[in-house]
Amino acid sequence: MRTRRSRKQLWLLVAAASAFALGATGGRAQEQPVQSVDEAGWQGVLGVRASVSTAQRYVVLLRPPSLAARVRAAGGRASEREMRGWFAAAVAQQEQFLARLSAVGARVAPEYRYTRVVNGFSARLDPTSAALLDDDREVIGIYPVRIAYPAQSESGGGVLPSAVADLEIAGLDGSGVTVALLDTGVDPSHPYLRRRVLSGVDVLNPGSGGIAQPHPTIPGRPERHATELAGIIAGNEGPDGLHGIAPGASILPVRVGGWQPNAEGGYSVYSRTDQILAGLEAAVDPNDDGDVLDAARIALIGMVEPYAAFADGPLPRAIAGAADLDVLTIVPAGNDGRAGPGYGSVAGPGGASDAVTVGAADGRLAAPTVRVHVRAGLRVLYEADVPLGGVPTETVTAGVVVVDRRTAARGIGALFTESGVSTVAGHAVLLPRAALSDDTVEETTSAGAVSVLVDGPLPAGAFSLDVPAGVPVVGLASEVVAEIRAMLAAGIPVTVAIGNVEVASREAEGSIAAFSSRGLALDGSLKPDLAAPGVSVPTSEPGRADDGDVRFGTISGTSAAAAVTAGVAAVLAQGRPALGARQLHGLLVGSALRADLDPTASGAGLVDLRAAVQQELLAEPALLSFGAVSGPVGAERAMRITNVSTRRLSVSVGIAAIAPKGVEITVDPQRLRIRPRRSAVVVVRADTAALSSEAGAATGELVLRGSDAPEVHVPWTVAVPPEVDLVSRLTLEATGTRVSDATPAALSFVAGAVTAAPDPHVRAVELLEVELWRGGERIGVLARRRELLPGRYTFGLTGRGPTGTRLGRGAFTIRLVAYPGDGTRRQVDTIEYRVR
User: Could you give the C-alpha distances from 747 to 58, 742, 797, 828, 831, in angstroms and in order?
Assistant: First the structure.
C-alpha cells in the first residue's frame, strides 16, 4: 500500500547520515564526484511540453476601442453606467464587423470574443478569410495562437517552510485583495485554502467554477498547478505554521488551462493564447456584466509560451488594457535558463512592458545527496554521489526494471498484469526522460516501486515531498543508462543500491536558479523585472492521500516565483490601497534588492516586501529600456518620478554602471524637489557612440535618493542584437505542372535564427510581408504574418494576385520583407516566380 508523509513528518529537515558501505566483491567503478546539475537537469522535471496543433488558429485585434481604451481616454475614471455603455458599444461594433465580413464571403466563427482589455476575437481562419481580414481597415493585425505550459515543477528535497518566511509584514496579510489565478483549475476543498477560494470562471468548460478537473481517461491524475500556486499566495493554517505570502487574500480561479487533447491522441495540461486572453477578460469582469467594479486587483498568469517574449501582440496589449483598468498582471519569466538564448529567452507574455515578469531565485542553504551504486552481476557499472530528487528514510537495494514512455503515458493501470499483479513492485524503475513527470513518478511508486531512476541528471529536490516516504528519485548519466539497458536486454540482471542521505551546503544562496529564463525580451527591453524564491517552495497539493491525509508538497519554477510575487503584490496593495496598478509595479521593482545579480537574469533584483511597503518614491517605467540601438545616434527616454509619501522630498538621480559596454548615460535634471503625491519628469539619454558591437545588453541602473527615503533602483539597458539573417534559405518549388489553387507553388524559407553556443541568441520576426512585384513595380502584399519564432515556414502561391484575381502569364518577383521586433533595420530577400 502506498504511504504518504503525514503533516508532522512533511517538514522534517533531512539530517546528515553516515556513509553507506557497499561490500562489492567484483570490479569497481572509478570514484566520481557529486554531480553538478545545471538547467539541462531540470528539463522534463519542469513540465512536459506536449505536441499540440494550433493550425489556422488566430487572434484578430480590431481598431474600435475596447472598454480599457475608453477608460484610459476618460482619464482612468468612469461610472458603472459609462462602462456598461462602452462595453455594449464594443459588442455591437464587433457584431457589425462580423456581419460585414460574412457578406463578402469570409468564413469566420469566433471561438472567444474580447471587448474589455482588448477589442478582438479568436477563430480558425482559412487562408482566404485571413487575407480578407488582414486587409480590412478595422483590423490592427492577425496573430498566431501559441501553446502555453505551466512554468513549474513539483519538487522537494528537505526544505523548511522558512524558504519564504522573510516576505511578511506584521498587520498586513492581503485582506480585501483579490488575486485572479489564470491557470488550471483549483481544488477549493483543500483545508490549506479554506475560505480563500471564490467561485471562479472556467474558460475551457464554462460552468465548472474554475475547479481542478481530473484526467479524462486516467484516474488519479488531477490538475495540480493552480492548487499549488494558490497555496503559495493565500494558504493558511498549514503544518508547523506554514502559510502563504498573503493568507488573507482571496483567490479567484480562472481556468484557462488544463487537460486538453494533444497531437498524439491523448491529453496534456496546457493553455493557448486565445484562452489566456479570455481569462484576462474574466479577471477584470468576473460577473460578466460589462463593468469592472468587481475586477481582481492582481492577476497571476501561471502559463507561459516558451521563448515568445514579444512586446506588442495580443497578450501584451491585453496586459496593458488590464493595467488601464487597475489590474496588475504578474507572469513567470519561463524555465529555459542558460540553455536558452541570451537575447530573447524569456517566455511569453513576459515581454509585455506592463507585466511584472518574475525570474526564480534559489535560496536553499543545503541540498541532499545520496550514494548510488549500480551493479550488473559482479561488474560495477557506476558509483557516485548524486543529487536526491526525493526524501528517503532508509537505504534501498533493488533490481532494475525499465518502463518505456508508452507504458508510463497509459497511467498506473499499465503497470499491472491482467490478474492484478504489479510489474514494478519491489524494483527500481528506470524511466525515460520523455516520460518524466510528477504523475509518472507518483504512479510508479504507487504501484510498488522502491526507487525511481531517470535517464539524465536531476537537480536536488526535483520531485515533490508528496512522493511516498522512503522512495528515492535519482538521475543517472545517459551513458550509464544506456549500459543498464544493454545489460537488461542481454538478460543480465542489474541491481542498484541507494545509500543514506547526506546534506551538502550550497555556496550559491540567493542565486538565480539555473532553469530561470534570462532576458532580453524580443524588442530588446530588459526582462525579467525582478526575481523571487522559486525553488522548493512549500505549498498545497490537490486531493487526498490513500489514507485520507491532506497533501502538501513543494514546487520549483518561475511560476512558483511569480506566485510568491503575486502574494507580495496583494500585501502591498492592502498596505498602499490608493496606488494604481502601474504604481504598484513601480514599487515592486524599485524596492527590489540588487544583491549583485545579473540584470538580464534578475531584473532589478530580489523582491523585498518590507522595502516596497516603506518606499516613498517610485519611477515609471520601472525598467528603463532603450531597446536596440545601432550606430552612434543614441536614444532618450522620459521617466516619471512620483512622491507617494506625505512629505516634500528633495530627489537626486545617481547613475551606476553594471556592464556599460561603452554606453554613457546622462539625466536632466539630476536634482529636483517633489511635493507629496506629485510627479516630476526627467529625461534620460544614452550616448552609444562607443557602444560595443558584441551581442547582448549594456546594463546599469539609476538610483533615486530622496532625503531620508529608501533608495529606488531603476535598471537601464541598451540592447545589441546579434548579426543574423531574418530570412534565409528561400526556395520555390512547384507541386504540379501548372500553378493553381489545387497545385500551388511552395514558397519555403527560414524566418529568424538562433545563433550557436556558447552564447546562443534568438532573433524572431515581428512582421513578415510577402510582396508581389513585376517589372520593378510593387503589385501588392500576398500574405502578412506576425510574431514568427525561428523556424521554417511555407506559403502556397496559387497564381493569384493580392486581390484574388488570376495573374497573367509571365515572370514575377516574390519579395520577402522581415521586420524585427527591436526596431532595427528590416531585411529583404527575393526569388523569381513564373506563372505559366
Answer: 21, 15, 7, 15, 9
Cis geometry, peptide bond prior to residue 349 (ω within 30 degrees of 0): yes
Half-sphere exposure of 103 (CA within 13 A, CB side): 6
Which has more pLDDT, 344 or 514? 514
- Cell triple for residue 699? 546594463
What is the identity of the amino acid at 635? Answer: A
Please state the separation of Cα 396 from the chain's center in Å: 37
Which of 273, 821, 312 is closest to 522 using CA atoms? 821
CA distance 525 to 543: 41
CA dihedral 606, 607, 612, 617 (to 10 degrees): 50
Mean pLDDT of 400-406: 88
Answer left, alpha or beta for residue 622, where phi above 0 means left and psi between -120 and 50 means alpha: alpha
- The CA distance from 311 to 440, in Å, is 36
pTM (whole model) above 0.90:
no
Please write the tens of the pLDDT for every residue from 595-630: 777 888 899 999 999 999 999 999 999 999 998 876
Peptide bond just before 64 cis, omega within 30 deg: no
The total of other beta-carbon atoms located within 10 Å of residue 628's CB is: 22
As a whole number of angstroms, the longest Cα–Cα distance in the chain is 84
Helices (H), 576-605: 581-590, 599-602
- Assigned C-alpha cell, 97: 464587423
Per-residue exposure over 142-174, b if at least 16 CB sit within 10 Å of its own CB, e if not: bbbbbbbbbbbbbbbbbbbbebbeebbbeebbb
What pLDDT is recorded for position 155? 47
Percent above pLDDT 70 for the chain: 87
Lowest mean pLDDT among 25-29, 208-212, 397-401: 25-29
Spatial CA neighbour of 78 closest among 284, 236, 384: 284
Residues 6+ apart with CB under 8 A from 508: 362
- Residue in 822, 276, 196 with CA at minimum distance from that of residue 567: 196
Q: Please, where are the H alpha helices in 581-649?
A: 581-590, 599-602, 609-614
Q: Which of these, 148, 151, 152, 267, lies nearest to 215 by C-alpha position?
A: 267
Task: Give the pLDDT band (50/70/90) at residue 697.
Answer: confident
Going by pLDDT thresholds of 50, 70 and 90, the confidence category of residue 14 is: very low
Phi and psi for 273 in degrees, rounded to 5? -50, -50
- Beta strand spans in 263-365 (E): 267-272, 298-301, 303-304, 328-332, 355-362
Contact 303, 183 (CB under 8 A): yes
Closest listed residue to residue 50, CA positions, set 212, 216, 256, 263: 263
Task: Give the contacts of 191 (CB within 8 A, at least 6 positions apart).
Answer: 237, 550
What are the Cα distances from residue 143, in Å, to 17, 104, 565, 757? 56, 22, 29, 30
pLDDT at 464: 55
Rounded-to-integer distance, Cα 315 and Cα 254, Å: 16
d(CA 654, CA 188): 49
Strands 745-751, 727-733: pairing is antiparallel
Cα first-last separation, the chain: 73
pLDDT band (50, 70, 90) for residue 147: very high
Q: Which backbone phi and psi does 625 adopt, to 5 degrees?
A: -110, 125
Pairing of strands 511-512, 355-362: antiparallel
List the one residue out of 789, 757, 788 whose CA is nearest residue 40. Answer: 757
Beta bridge partners of 700: 657, 716
Q: At what angle do helices 314-324 and 273-284 cross, to 10 degrees?
A: 10
Among 70-79, 120-129, 752-761, the minimum mean pLDDT is found in 752-761
Report d(CA 366, CA 266) in Å as an integer: 39
